[in-house]
Amino acid sequence: MEEVTGVAHPDQTGEDRTGALVGRLFEAAIGSVDMVSVVSGRRLGLYRALAEAGPSAAADREIA
Description:
This protein is mainly alpha-helical. It is 59% helix and 0% strand. It has 2 helices and no strands. The N and C termini lie far apart (60 Å).
């Protein structure tokens, strides 16, 4: 049988199903954090600042 990550199959044990559920919940949580980061960056103007200044790294900035 082909293994599909995050999907429970009828012949799996309870532990396997729990692991599949935990994996799906973890991936959903990571996706939520990604979305919060994107929305925050947009609202704070970080993407606009990067577009205007070009690529940037922490080592490129002066500490005030």
